[in-house]
Amino acid sequence: MPRMQLRPLPLIACSAMAFALVGYATAALPDEKPASEDSGNTPAEVVEAQMTALSVWRDDHDSAARVFRHASPANRAVTGPLERFRSMVEQDSFAALIDNVGWSAGKAVLAEDAAVVLVTMILPDGSLHAFRFYLSRQPDGAGGEWMTDAVIPIALPRGPGGVVLGPKARAAA
């Protein structure tokens, strides 16, 4: 089934599992250059660039480097180097980022030099999954770019058969 980018979907998130996508400060490889050379100017553009690269993850070996390029230095200190980052993204808790048939990013919520973007995706079985992307504007010495500090999977309320429940269904349950 071909991938598609969807329009923003309204979602109410219940609980979140915390797990940051971040890198380790090692000697930078050519494909681990900072995002400043090709990143977007807004948090939404950074998330869109990362999700676009994640959408071709299974077919394009270089997509991991494009995603990792947008990780903040603090993020890289935890999740790198690149090969470690790649294997982390392929774990079950993050598999929906790369194994989906479509995704939609919500509007960025900004507070000074911090931002949060909700991304919702449809998995091949038709179920929904969501992640919160946490970003920060880097200090001027680091390029002043928006970069991703963490990506947190969100547990959505589910009913019988794993169907995501909306507010009315949750109230009736």
Walk me through the structure.
23% of the residues lie in helices and 23% in strands. Residues 3-40 have low confidence and may be disordered. Strands 1, 2, 3, 4, 5, 6 and 7 form a seven-stranded mixed sheet that branches. The protein has helices at 43-55, 63-68, 73-79, 82-89, 167-172; strands at residues 4-5, 15-16, 102-105, 109-111, 114-122, 128-137, 146-155. The longest helix is centred in the first third of the chain and has 13 residues, at 43-55. With 173 residues, the chain is an alpha+beta fold. The protein starts with a strand and ends with a helix. A hairpin with a 5-residue loop joins strand 5 and strand 6.
Count of DSSP H/I helices = 5
What pattern of helices and strands is seen along the backbone? EEHHHHEEEEEH
Approximately what portion of the residues adopt beta-strand conformation? Answer: 15-25%
Question: Would you tell me the structural class of the helices and strands?
Answer: alpha+beta
Helix content: 10-25%
The number of strands is: 7
Mean pLDDT: 76
- Rg: 16 Å
Query: Which consecutive residue ranges, at least 5 long each, have pLDDT under 50?
Result: 3-40
The largest β sheet comes out as: 7 strands, mixed
For the termini, the CA-CA separation is 34 Å
What is the 3D shape? globular
